[in-house]
Specification:
The complex is a heterodimer.
Chain A (H helix, E strand, L loop, with lengths): L2 H6 L4 H8 L1 H31 L7 E5 L4 E11 L5 E6 L3 H4 L3 E5 L3 E5 L5 E5 L5 E10 L2 E5 L1 H51 L4 H35 L2 E6 L5 E5 L3 E5 L6 H17 L2 E2 L4 E2 L2 H32 L4 H13 L4 H24 L1 H7 L9 H25 L3 H9 L4 H29 L3 H6 L26 H11 L3 H37 L5
Antiparallel strand pairs in A: 1-2, 1-5, 2-3, 3-4, 6-7, 6-11, 7-8, 7-9, 9-10, 12-13
Chain B lengths: L22 H6 L7 E2 L1 H5 L2 E12 L2 E12 L3 E5 L6 H8 L9 E9 L2 E2 L7 H6 L1 E4 L10 H5 L1 H5 L5 H14 L3 H4 L12 H13 L5 E5 L7 H14 L4 E5 L3 H7 L2 E6 L2 E7 H6 L4 H7 L5
Helix pairs in contact in B: 7-9, 9-10
Chain lengths: 552, 294
């Protein structure tokens, strides 16, 4: 063919487009960009909202056209149906106004100012309080009068009151719990003896005697604890900070009820940061208050991590062994193909179905049997199931079942990616099939298996629906892993961040106040999952460097 | 693996010996020709005897009645164009073909007198008596040290002194010791291609095999690495009985004592390497080794 004819040959526009490929670059790149924008948009929204929750905002004194005055934080702004602007103000002081938040049209507001002495108070109960401090009282005596003086004296005395309150709270929560457990185990010993030898047996009589002894000892200790808590509470008694609200009412708040207070309008940046960090500290390390809409989420963090790790520990051996059989031992045939399709389909079963299965089989059948065999005294004594109800173990097992397909599929992929030449090399050395799998195939496939596990953990940690059925509770302050023997309590119900999102977001009586908490909890959950993933990816990277050649 | 009776061999006209017939054409037409086996091959005691060995992949016959003794302590090269069954024959010796579900065989092989395809033969034990090196280096995902002593490890050997000694001896035997002696604990996957292949040879000779099977050990290597592996094969000569498959005529002529020429699953001519390359009996062999065909 001469160059003349070559030049004259026509090419279709389709062919030209395909040959250049530019269009496909734009198409594929565009899709990726769109996906990135959506993901980054979602994560960015969660992060920006979640991070801002605890930052102290200015407190505004609002004067209304009808003469009312109130103190509040502006938390939102939008257009009313008639087109005029309106703003949402967190007015707090629920016991006086019956509202936590209120909408005001722009026309209603005459003036707003930011007085320096305006104070935000976080309380144990009743939501926030906004007001101006006027006097600090102790047992009827005025310690300090006047806004400035009272605030300064509050800063001096509040930490001591707070420390005493915390000590009393610890005694109530921990020490009394220990005594209750002692009493219960003595009572169960009696029931056990009765079940073993009948109501007249000498063993039962001995157990009854022992129980009496324990009861006497516990009562003595209780009295001692009562004495200590009474002393601590008496120390706090009578301490109160008197406030004047914007409307002019006078309110006395007991100091022990105040979690923290700050005057946002006069805070320097560093002081603001201090309040911010202190609120984050409470959020991460404390128990929840006020129906989970305030305080901390520590039990939920603990529960989420414990459940995810136990789930990973359960699902990894199951999934890997099942995939090993499927890939290395099962003969290729229609049955194997059917099993493989069935496993893939399992991934599409709604998660609530797994929850129902977990409740029906794990809790009632398995747990019920365990209770009958091992915990019969507890069942007889107070009619309470031990394992026969939702708990950490059953929730982890249910989620392990849910994520099993992910692990099996990923493991199978990883196994089939192990070059056959390695297997043959091992056989040629005289290794048996199992030796080849254990020494050559599994180490080489480990990074791929880790990928499956990472996906499974991310999926499991974000699941809510099945957890509601098998052990996650709105409030469960007894941690599933703690310092009391035997340290891991697989039968305990627990809290979970993903469920908390649902609970705080949609079940809270004070939904406006809970909204920023929802963002913060979501942010925390995403951060924890990301952290678990980063750890797993780091391990995978190490394994890959060790076991997978970069050459050839 | 069971060995059902093979399908009846097609009756084909056997050309009279010495007739001026193109044997390759006969073979290509599905016919059978007698193998030309030099007398000197039979004078050396055999480590491995292949006796009327046939092999089928499904219904396709890949090896046709191969009969050849492999001399003890010598290097024997298998040459022939692609698809002639060299590698299949090699993989039949240590029964790696057992792993392919559709393979059937008939005939016999004997390793130092022990029938390889006997029902009572333990495949695992059999493979421990042989070493094999593959086309592509396939070091295991573990340290250099563990690669070399792998065969001993799976045999349950855990005495450090024994392992150390075998490791050093094998690596010296594979001319790799000086290059890796300071990093035995590092991953074998970090070695270069040529080093990896010599590591695989060290692994194959670690268990003192009766036969060493090399399946085109240089085909994935660059010229310098190829040279080193060839030198190594020279050194192994006399120490081990080696059966090597190769595509490279120079390699066969340089490093082997005996050469067998195969074509389409048949053994065509088999004799001392110098004879095969300088004065072969058959002109077909001469055509192939001089590069005029194949």
């Amino acid at each position: 063919m001469s160059s003349e004819t070559f030049r004259r040959r026509r090419r279709s526009t389709h062919a030209a487009l395909a040959a250049h490929g530019e269009a496909w670059v734009w198409l594929t790149g565009g899709c990726l960009a769109l996906a990135l924008v959506m993901i980054i948009g979602l994560l960015g929204y969660i992060v920006s909202e979640g991070v801002a929750t605890f930052w102290p905002r200015p407190l505004e004194l609002v004067e209304l056209a009808d003469g009312r005055r109130l103190l509040g934080e502006e938390t939102g702004r939008d257009k009313a149906p008639d087109g005029s602007g309106r703003r949402l103000i967190r007015t707090a002081n629920f016991e006086l106004t019956g509202k936590h938040f209120e909408w005001f049209a722009d026309g209603e507001v005459k003036a707003t100012t930011r007085p320096a002495e305006a104070t935000v108070v976080e309380r144990l109960e009743g939501g926030r309080f906004h007001g101006f401090p006027s006097r600090l009282l102790h047992g009827g005596e005025v310690i300090a009068a006047g806004s400035e003086e009272a605030w300064r004296a509050f800063g001096e005395h509040h930490p001591f009151v707070r420390r005493r309150w915390r000590q009393a709270w610890r005694i109530d929560k921990d020490d009394r719990g220990v005594l209750q457990r002692k009493l219960r185990s003595a009572r169960l010993a009696v029931v056990r003896a009765e079940l073993a030898g009948g109501p007249e047996s000498p063993a039962r009589a001995a157990a009854v005697e022992a129980e009496k002894g324990v009861a006497a000892a516990v009562e003595a200790e209780e009295r001692a604890l009562d004495g200590r808590t009474a002393e601590l509470r008496a120390g706090n008694e009578g301490w109160g900070l008197e406030f004047t609200t914007a409307a002019g009412e006078t309110v006395l708040l007991p100091l022990a009820e105040i979690v923290r207070a700050w005057q946002p309008n006069r805070l320097s940046f560093r002081e603001r940061l201090g309040v911010y960090v202190s609120r984050w500290g409470e959020f991460l390390g404390d128990d929840p208050r006020e129906a989970n809409s305030a305080g901390g989420v520590f039990p939920a963090i603990w529960g989420t991590i414990a459940m995810t790790l136990i789930m990973a520990l359960l699902v990894a051996p199951f999934g890997v062994l099942a995939a090993l059989y499927l890939r290395e031992y099962a003969s290729r045939g229609p049955l194997t193909a059917a099993v493989r399709i069935a496993i893939n389909n399992l991934a599409g079963v709604p998660s609530i179905v797994y929850g129902a299965f977990g409740l029906g089989f794990f809790c009632y059948v398995l747990g019920g049997s365990i209770d009958e065999i091992l915990f019969r005294p507890a069942l007889v004594a107070d009619g309470q199931p031990t394992f026969g109800t939702g708990g950490l173990l059953w929730a982890s097992l249910t989620l392990a079942l849910l994520t099993l397909p992910v692990v099996i599929v990923a493991t199978e992929e990883a196994l089939s990616a192990v070059p056959n030449s390695m297997r043959e090399g091992s056989y040629a050395c005289g290794a048996s099939k199992w030796q080849t799998i254990r020494r050559i195939v599994l180490p080489r496939a480990l990074p791929g298996i880790m990928t499956g596990l990472i996906l499974a953990m991310a999926r499991g940690a974000g699941e809510v629906a099945p957890l509601m059925l098998v052990g996650v509770k709105k409030l469960a302050l007894d941690l599933p892993i703690d310092g009391t023997f035997p340290f891991v309590h697989p039968e305990r119900e627990f809290m979970h961040l993903a469920y908390l999102i649902y609970d705080v977001g949609f079940q809270s009586p004070n939904s406006q106040a809970a909204k920023p908490m929802v963002f913060t909890i979501t942010f925390l959950l995403v951060a924890i999952i990301a952290l678990l993933n980063v750890a797993a990816i780091w391990i995978r990277g190490r394994l890959r460097r060790r076991y997978v050649s970069q050459q050839f | 693996m069971s060995t059902p009776p093979p399908p009846a061999e097609p009756r084909t006209p056997t050309p009279p010996a010495g007739a001026a017939v193109d044997r390759l054409a006969v073979v290509a037409a599905g016919g059978q020709v007698p193998a030309e086996i030099h007398e000197r091959v039979r004078q050396t005691p055999a480590v491995l005897e292949i006796d009327h060995f046939n092999l089928w992949y499904g219904t396709k016959q890949a090896l046709h009645s191969i009969t050849m003794p492999i001399p003890h302590g010598k290097v024997t090269a298998l040459v022939g164009p692609s698809g002639c069954g060299k590698s299949t024959l090699l993989r039949s010796v240590n029964r790696l073909n057992d792993l392919v579900p559709s393979v059937r065989i008939s005939g016999e092989m004997r390793l130092n007198g022990d029938p390889i395809y006997d029902q009572r033969m333990d495949v695992i034990e059999l493979r421990k008596r042989m070493g094999m090196v593959f086309q592509r280096p396939n070091p295991f995902p573990m340290s250099i040290y563990e690669n070399v002593v792998y065969a001993l490890r799976i045999d349950g050997e855990s005495r450090r002194a024994v392992l150390d000694e075998v490791c050093e001896r094998s690596l010296r035997g594979a001319a790799l010791w000086d290059e890796v002696k300071d990093r035995l604990g590092e991953s074998a996957l970090g070695l270069s291609g040529g080093q990896q292949q010599r590591l695989c040879i060290a692994r194959a000779i670690a268990a003192e095999p009766e036969v060493l099977l090399l399946d085109e050990p240089c085909s994935a290597l660059d010229p310098i690495a190829t040279g080193k592996v060839e030198d190594l094969i020279q050194e192994l000569r006399g120490l081990y009985s080696v059966l090597i498959v190769t595509h490279n005529m120079q390699q066969a002529s340089r490093s082997s004592d005996y050469t067998a020429f195969m074509y389409l699953g048949r053994l065509i001519e088999y004799g001392p390497t110098t004879d095969i390359f300088t004065k072969p009996v058959l002109r077909e062999t001469e055509a192939y080794v001089t590069g005029r065909f194949g």
